[in-house]
Amino acid sequence: MKAARLYEYDPEFRGPEFLKVEEVPDPEIQEPDDVIIRIGGAGLCRTDLHIIEGIWRGKVEVDLPYILGHENAGWVEEVGRGVRRFRRGDPVIVHPLITDGVCPACRRGNDMHCENGVFPGINRDGGFAQYLLVKERNLVRLPDGVEPREVAPHADAGLTAYHAAKKAVRVLEPGDHAVIIGMGGLGHIAFQVLRTLSPARIIVVDRSDLALSLAQELGAEYRVKGGDDAVREVLDLTGGRGAQAVLDFVGEGGSIEQGLAMTRNAGYYFVIGYGGTIRVPAIDMIFSEKNIVGNLVGTYTDLVELMTLAGEGRVRLATVHYRLDQVNQAIADLHGGRVKGRAVLVP
Fold it and tell me: What is the bridge-based pairing of β-strands 291-294 and 263-271?
């Protein structure tokens, strides 16, 4: 099969060939619950850029070269003899973590913290290829009429956005404000989830005119241009109090400081994007009682719920499609801020 593999890290992001597209052996069924997926779409994520840059080096154990791609959807191609819920041709989306199902975290339904989890595209071969080997337990059947290439980024981007937005919904009441920092690949999904599930007034903040135009297309009433005046504008929109929930999908370049400044006392700052560092004096935490909440992708149940909303047309993805042999162009476009929504590789 054809696959796009990472041979060496590129800290300076020089390119132009970040990944090499080449022929590799097809995956094979090895255990009774194994499933081989024919990839219909593989999302390109900013995490993939960080992997290429080497930011994940030392945090996960992986031998180069290997295949990236952790946002995957497609059709069942082959199943192990123990698989009962799926058969060849079924359209599916792949929950990004292969879990054991029996550790305490899995038993609590908190699968993203599985003690023995394996993450295709992160610490083993992923879906930037024609086929992917997974397990029956991390497959979710797609609703009727939903195409794999249109929803593949939901396997991580959508799932992460949904997981964070669902947490925010629990603390939002009528009359509250929620802020989304970064209306890109994750933010535009979180906006739709919040609009569907919460009564809050939603404020979108982004430096990119392209992202703000997407916010307008999706019906965002309050749009703030990112920059030095963003905090003041958000405070003006919230009567000087700040927002009850701030969801930061950037996590660097000043967004952390601004996000905390936009959060009202006793409010919630959800950090989803990363790259920066959170530094808050202890006395400020005491007097403000602000809550800082981390977010790591999402659970299997979260993905099932998100696919329900996608099937009902209540959450849609803005996607740009690339052939697998255009992977390096897709990477350059994402790095350069030229992708509106999510980039998806279609083998």
Answer: parallel
